[in-house]
Amino acid sequence: MIPWNTKPLYQVRQWELREVSKDCFISYQQNKYSVPYRYAGQQVKVHETNEGMLELYDEYERIAVHPLLDGRHQMTMNSEHYQGLPGTKKEQDKNLHGLATPDSPTPIPTVESRSLAIYAALEEGE
């Protein structure tokens, strides 16, 4: 006979709903866990696994997984949850659409410079 009190024979899932804050965290048992930025302001489903992990789901798929934190008032953050967030350096670099920058391997082309007086003269009809 196998003892019954060691581990559940099947995974017991108790689902809870949490709202994702503006800073992309949910609160669970007085700890904070990061969520991908696109879910800010939305509700997500949360549950603990038998392996000591916290899984977060939207309506269809798992969007994040974190190890459960011991204690209270702690925080765990996955930096990938903030990649592509509007206003971040990565997002600004992405918006250049292939333009050369001082940091890019593509050399910056030289551009002819001329006096603005030439444009003023053209505007006056000279």
From TrEMBL:
Sequence ranges assigned to domain Transposase for insertion sequence element IS21-like C-terminal in this UniProt record: 10-77
Region called Disordered, residue ranges: 78-110
Superkingdom of the source species: Bacteria
InterPro entries documented for this protein: IstA-like_C (IPR054353)
Database matches in Pfam families: Mu-transpos_C_2
Entries under PANTHER family matching the protein: TRANSPOSASE, TRANSPOSASE RV3428C-RELATED
Name of protein: Transposase for insertion sequence element IS21-like C-terminal domain-containing protein
